[in-house]
Amino acid sequence: MARKSSGGTKSRIVDAAWKLFYEQGYEGTTVEDIVALSGTSKGSFYHYFASKDDLVGSMAYLFDEKYEELAAALDPQVPALEALLYLNRELFLMIENRIDIALLTRLLSTQLTLQGSKQLLDHNRVYFKLLRRIITDGRQRGELTEALTVSEMVRLYAMTERAMLYEWCLRGGDYALSDYAARTLPLLLSSLKK
């Protein structure tokens, strides 16, 4: 008989939480609801997450699942800025169509108020590794400026995306996030061209 890994327990908790957040909303979901649906225990929940807000931070890793999918489909020869625009468009479309804006707002606010880990700034995430790869490759092909380091360009891009998400949440999602990014992000990224 195969043993269940602790990673499986954490995944069950996260999967149950996101299902409940989607169906009942964040405020309408309790830790008890999450534990019941995941078939785990409160002890297991608190082993992995300090609070329900801490669990919301795992949304960053859900985004990484999308980035893994996009990275697999991305032609490595596509120019760097084109690749960055593609990643942005696909993620922002996913956010608009599959993530409740109240939940995204909660994620962004918890990153400002929680003590401890800031998942959106975790440079071990797939997101940051993918950005570094795209920008490094673009620089090696002579597409990108040498006025900034690869790390500075990654930071600038990530900050720009976060700013767009914060603004969209502040405005209650009253415009198409992906359309706005498609119009403005190319202008911002043009400053990275060689």
Describe the structure.
It contains ten helices and no strands. It is mostly helical. It has two domains: 6-50, Orthogonal Bundle (Arc Repressor Mutant, subunit A); 57-192, Tetracycline Repressor, domain 2. Helix 1 (6-24) packs across helix 2. The longest helix is centred in the C-terminal third of the chain and has 21 residues, at 150-170.
Defining traits:
single chain, 194 residues, mainly alpha, Arc Repressor Mutant, subunit A, Tetracycline Repressor, domain 2, 2 domains, 0% strand, elongated
Précis, in short:
With 194 residues, this protein is mostly helical. The protein has helices at 6-24, 31-38, 42-48, 52-56, 59-73, 80-98, 101-113, 126-140, 150-170, 177-189.
What is the topology?
Layout: H1 6-24, H2 31-38, H3 42-48, H4 52-56, H5 59-73, H6 80-98, H7 101-113, H8 126-140, H9 150-170, H10 177-189
Helix pairs in contact: 1-2, 5-6, 6-8, 6-10, 7-9, 8-9, 9-10
